[in-house]
Structure formats: C-alpha cells, structure tokens
Model the fold of this input.
Amino acid sequence: MKYENHLLKIMTSALPMAALPAIGQAQGQPVAVDRQRPNIILFMVDDMGWQDTSVPFWTQPTPLNRTYETPNMEKLARQGMVFTQAYATPISSPTRCSLLTGSNAARHRVTNWSLERNVMTDSNDDKMAVPQWNVNGISPVSTTENAYHARSFVQILRDNGYHTIHCGKAHWGAMDTPGENPSAWGFDVNIAGHAGGAPTTYLSERNYGHRQDGTPTSAFAVPGLRKYWGTGTFLTEALTKEALTAMDKAKKYQQPFFLYMAHYAIHIPIDRDQRYFSKYVRKGLSDKEAAYASLIEGMDKSLGDIMEWLNNNGEAKNTILIFMSDNGGYATETAWRDAPLYTQNAPLKCGKGSLYEGGIREPMIVRWPDTVKPGTRCDKYLIIEDFYPSLLEMAGIKKYATPQPIDGISFVPLLIGGKDTSHDRALYWNYPNVWGNEGPGISLNCAIRWNEWKMIYSYKTGKKELYNINEDIGEANDLSVSHPDLTNKLSRLLGNHLRKVKAQRPSVKATGQPAPWPDEVR
Done:
C-alpha cells in the first residue's frame, strides 16, 4: 500500500495525457508546466570503481575506502540510500547508450566505445572476428546507418515541461552523426559534450586539448570552455562552474530542471589536480596514486558544490540527486596504478572492460527528500537501463511512446520499500568485442545475473564460470562443475535472451562460422 500511495502522490502532479506532445512535436512548442515536480540531478562519474571512495559499498570498509577522501559522497550517503549492487556495462558507450534509451546493450548493439563514423574501435584478436556492431552509437533519427534509433528520456522530460541541461561527457554517437550532439537528445543546454569519450587533458594550461588558435590537438579535446584556458582551472572545476551557472539561469525559468552532470573525471589521463595532489603524497601515496586520488577528490568537491547550490537556493528539498558511475575502475594498466594487476577494485575482481564484478558494479547513491529514508542501504540489484523508466517515474511521467523497446525496470519501488524488483529477475551483458586491454573477464564474452548466481560465458573458449555472488564477491570459486543443472539453466536463459533481442556474437576466423551461443555448449 505504501508504494501505491507514493505513486498516487507523484502522479497527481503529472501532466494529463492531453497535454503530452506527439513524438514529432516541434521543440519549443509551449507545454503546461508544474513547478512542484522535482528537479532531478544525475551525477555521473566516468570510470569510477566501486571502491574509489571513502563510502563503504561492501559489508565493511576496505583499504581503498580508508585511502580516498570523498566527504561529500559520505554526506550524500547519510542523507539518502546507498545501492550496493548497481550494475552498468564494462565500457562507457554501451552504458551511456543504455541510460539514454532504456535498452539493454545486447539489444542496441553499441557494445564497444564509439568515436569516428563507421569506424570500429576494436583491437585485433588472433582467433575471433568481432561482429559489425553499431559503431555510430545511438541516433534520434532512423536514417543513421550502423546506429540504434531511439527516443531519449531527456526528450520526454523536455516535452513535459522540464528545462534540460547537459554538462560534460556525452559519448552517445560517433563524429558527424546526429547522436553526437546532446541537443539532438532533448537537452536545452549543452556544455562540453561531443563524440569524444575522454579528455585530451584536464589542464587549462594545455587548453583542455586545444592549440592557442583554437584548433584541437586530438578528437578528445574538450570543446566550449575557452574562457578557462590558461587560468589554472582544472577541467572538473570548470565544468562545475558552468553547471552552477546553468542552474542559476534555470532557477529563473520557474520550471523544474534536469541536470545531467557527466564528468570526464576520473577517466585517464591521470592528470594531477593540484588542489589535492600534495595531500595524498603526504599520506604516503606514490605520485601516480596521488594523482588518481586527486581526481577522485576533485570530483567529490564538484558534488559538494552542487549540493551547496541546492541548499543556498532553496532547492534541496525539491531535488532528487542520484550518483552513479558508467563502468568499473581501471585494473589493467600499471602505468599509473601501483597495485598488482587486476586488484585495484578489490575485493572485486578485475576492472573496466571485464564482466567480472570489478568491471560492472558501480557506486550508486540516491537522495530524495521526504521519500527516501536517509542513511539506508539497498542490497537488491539493478542495471543501468533501469534509470530510463525510473527517472520518468520520479518526474511523474508514466505514459510515453518510444520507437525502441524499454528493457529497464523502474527502481523506484526499491527506494520506497515497495516490491523487490530484483527477485528472479535476470540481468544480461553481451560484449562480443575486443577492447584492447587484456585481463580476466575482458572481451569476447557474455554474462547473466540471476538472484545470487552469476554465469560468464566465453565466446572464444566456450568456457563457462558460475559464481555465488552473495557468498563469493571476489569470484574466486567457480561452481560450474559442481552445479551443472544450474549452469545449464542459466545458459538457456542467456542464450534465449540473446537470440530474442537479436544480439551479436563473434565468429571464428578459421571457419568463418559464428561462435556458439552459451546454451549450445555443454
């Protein structure tokens, strides 16, 4: 009854269907506005591991939790709900495309990171050939080749009276395609978003990747921040300043706003944020680790600045604030991390690019005043495509039309003590690609999570691994041999889903034949 009463509460502020514009309605056409709807801020961090914070997301604090200092994440956790089993995909573009479309990556087929139009970013494998995935990302129009056509939840928010702001990394569409521009997805304001999925540099002294005449030094130069060049303003701080200015303007519009604060941090390059670097050197970290820690704390300072703006402007009580990351932290490079390979996200195994927990389990926190009980934790699992229906439900929007199927399920019930949406629900991952970095669970595989069980299948070797995640978070004890019936059951569920959504799979170079589906291998 509590859940039903809550739905009634937020739906009473929803616009009547007669006020909803058709899918093809021209942008800018007036719509009715209900200022009592909550503002929504999605604070998305890039490549942040589950342990890259002082907030414990496990059952106990870890050495990494004691190393990093994220006081504003701690404050947010005290004021909201911590999700300990929030999942994304192992790579940036697939996650961000699932977020914006509500479709699972196996369905939208943007299974690796995108950049140039019609150019695959995969590395070469000696035995397997990757399929022709949607290298152009997602597109708001149906005529873009090698792309997934979709309507974003941002466009739906905008059509229902929200002022929409994008700040930071986009990474939804390849260069010279409609999907590269956040404005095409319904954002009224675009700050520094483009096709690139990383910054050339965080340093204003290097003009964020531009020559002095304004020409970019690479495809990853961060656009639109020229006034900060040469000022000593770290990229994370420049983006934060621009976001605060955009919120100042939004407040004058007398309508609810949605801010997608999508930091480039803490993606490589690991530049030193001098505001925090020396402190971590004094704590005994190497220069490499101190630089990484400075990126983390700079990101946390941005979160604190946004929370302070909400308090100072009387918007904190009417704003939902969600913290999330797009994939696991790096664990495959020793050039900037001192820990042994594949351990940088311990107790989780491996990191970015991997279908082990270190590559896909993310730090997530939700603050929703007067709705979510402060200082609570949720151990139920969810996945990135769930954000699409969840954000719309938070805004009081229940009915909408999209050209794409919505695979996500709203996690609002988990926030308010309603139905357990994770029980007997299967989560799916498909990564038929070759990322480039090597390590456990990286490339040419697929996976399923069902209750406490997780199975990973390698397209290349045909090997299956089965883990009880509740008892073995580090995925050290493969139970596939001792539990053959369960392994076969999960293989069938995974194989049936991949075929149903027309997922792709690699092929064997020697024969030209596609690799078997997981339920075709015993």
In short: Residues 26 and 412 are 31 Å apart (CA to CA). The chain is about 25% helix and 15% strand. The radius of gyration is 22 Å. The longest helix spans residues 287-312.
